[in-house]
Amino acid sequence: MKKNNLISRPDEKILNHIYFVRGEKVILDRDLASLYGVETKYLKRQVNRSRARFPKDFMFELTKAEFENWRCQFGTSNSSDKMGLRYTPYAFTEQGVAMLSSVLNSEKAISVNIQIIRIFTKFRKMYADHTGLKLAVKELRKKTNAHSEKIDYVFKLLDELFKQKSSQENRKLIGYKSPKSKD
Predict the structure, then answer these.
(1) What gap in Å lies between CA 107 and CA 27, rounded to an integer?
(2) Which residues contact 6 (CB under 8 A, 6 or more apart)?
(3) Burial of residue 54 (number of CB atoms within 10 Å: 0-12, 13-18, 19+)
(4) What does the longest C-alpha to C-alpha distance in the chain come to?
(5) Phi first, then psi: what are they for 2, rounded to 5°?
(6) What is the DSSP letter of 4?
(7) How many CB atoms sit inside 10 A of residue 109's CB?
(8) How many CB atoms lie within 10 A of CB 139?
(9) Which is more confident, 77 or 15?
């Protein structure tokens, strides 16, 4: 059996490079380049040569405001060199990462892409599971509210019964008295 010589990346290393930008889970070009073992400029060059493969829902360039916000999240203070970046980075969605395997044709790129796609799939599954749980809790909350209304009604009835009973204890009894009782 032939062993694969490629180094497997731990999922945590990839997870640390997934950001939420414009409501999308994305990985930035510099992080992908690092994972693939290539220079960022090489990755960008390959993407720009095949620009038609990367529509806006696959890849987009961060705006200056988004880039500044992203930098602020990490507390970086070296604004003069923009963390070594001359241009704002490209952000790749799950589909964009999948498309990268067609423009970067190395074994390492393909294996890293497979791993990234699996992580994105886990994200989607966790979200779906979370949504199901959220709906179940909402349904339980509705049932609980209905039950608590019914329980409140039962307590009100019990309070009324106790009030009636206490008012009955204070009244004088009328009717036949047995010879044993000395009331």
Answers:
(1) 20
(2) 107, 108, 111
(3) buried
(4) 114
(5) -85, 130
(6) P
(7) 21
(8) 10
(9) 15
- In this model, does residue 151 exceed pLDDT 80? yes
pLDDT attached to residue 158 = 83
Tell the residue number behind the tokens 């106790």, with chain if given.
162
Check residue 1 and give its pLDDT. 40
**Hunting for tokens 């999948």 — which residue is that?**
98
Rounded Cα distance, 120 and 95, in Å? 10
DSSP 94-138: HHHHHHHHHHS-SHHHHHHHHHHHHHHHHHHHHHHHHHHHHHHHH
pLDDT tens for each residue of 85-108: 667 889 999 888 888 877 887 778
> pLDDT tens digits for 119-148?
888 877 777 766 777 777 778 777 777 777
Structure tokens at 4: 């694969």
Q: Which residue do the tokens 């380049």 mark?
A: 33
